[in-house]
Amino acid sequence: MHIGLGGNLYGPAGTGKTESVKALGGLMGRQVLVFNCDEGIDVWSLSRILIGLIKCGAWGCFDEFNRLEEVTLSAISLQIQRLQHALQSGSKTVTVLEKKVMINI
């Protein structure tokens, strides 16, 4: 966590992946917001969610991330990568949707 990276839990349904993330976030003093992803979610919607998470310092848990359309998955992955680079470099801001967003850590 201290190097600015996230995680990707993998395993069968019903094994407690989401609950584990929520418990870990709670132990680290972070609010964890869970979002269910499906084919209908677009880049703009996910980007707005990401902006909200960045501004309030909460963790995001994206259930069924693999169900996103390829173009959406690619675009949001790039934005997450930008956030990771900003965290690693100690930057106080990151650009999402062409907006500079203050990082609340």
Automatic annotation (TrEMBL):
Lineage of the source organism?
Answer: Eukaryota, Metazoa, Ecdysozoa, Arthropoda, Hexapoda
Q: Which residues form the Dynein heavy chain hydrolytic ATP-binding dynein motor region domain?
A: 1-104
* Species for this entry: Ranatra chinensis
The name this protein carries in UniProt is Dynein heavy chain hydrolytic ATP-binding dynein motor region domain-containing protein
Gene3D superfamilies from the xrefs? P-loop containing nucleotide triphosphate hydrolases
